[in-house]
Design a protein that fits this description.
38% helix; alpha/beta; DHquinase_II; 5-stranded parallel β-sheet; binds 1,3,4-trihydroxy-5-OXO-cyclohexanecarboxylic acid
Length: 146
């Protein structure tokens, strides 16, 4: 199984960015943790980050031919991007939405997700573990849904 992990805007700053909310782990550390976790589950994980909505749309479209599923933390685009939602709907790939913080505990503008309606499910609030749990959930879904 091949899984694409997509990180949206500002997640390249993890470790330095609002550590009280997002923790001190860097994005590179998260990615290597997910690759290792994937190995244990016989899955190949590739991660990429972009601050640009269109680059993320392109990555989702291109994923169709190479990956069986997507783990996405769309960052602030979660709350704004119909384009990302439409891209996920278009490729019809199983997608798990993750967030480091619990978006429902925060400002009301973070309570709505455009991604949620096209995702298998959402994991929010467990810090770095949200990604690990999301990866597990996605792989389990892929292995047990056919
Ligand atoms: C986030 C939550 C979003 O509201 C925020 O814009 C982010 C990070 C999270 O992982 O908690 O950039 O997706």
């Amino acid at each position: 199984i091949r899984i694409l992990v997509l990180h949206g805007p500002n997640l390249n700053l993890l470790g330095a960015r609002e550590p009280g909310i997002y923790g001190s782990v860097t994005l590179a550390e998260i990615d290597s943790m997910l690759v290792a976790e994937g190995n244990q589950l016989q899955a190949e994980v590739k991660a990429m980050q972009s601050n640009h909505e269109g680059v993320l749309v392109d990555a989702i479209q291109a994923a169709k031919s190479e990956y069986q599923g997507i783990v996405i933390n769309a960052g602030a685009y979660t709350h704004t991007s119909v384009a990302l939602r439409d891209a996920i709907a278009a490729v019809k790939m199983p997608t798990v939405e993750v967030h480091l913080s619990n978006i429902y505990q925060r400002e009301s503008f973070r309570h709505h997700s455009y991604i949620a309606g096209v995702a298998i499910g959402q994991i929010s609030g467990f810090g770095v573990q949200s990604y690990r749990l999301g990866l597990h959930a996605l792989i389990h879904h892929i292995r047990h849904s056919n």
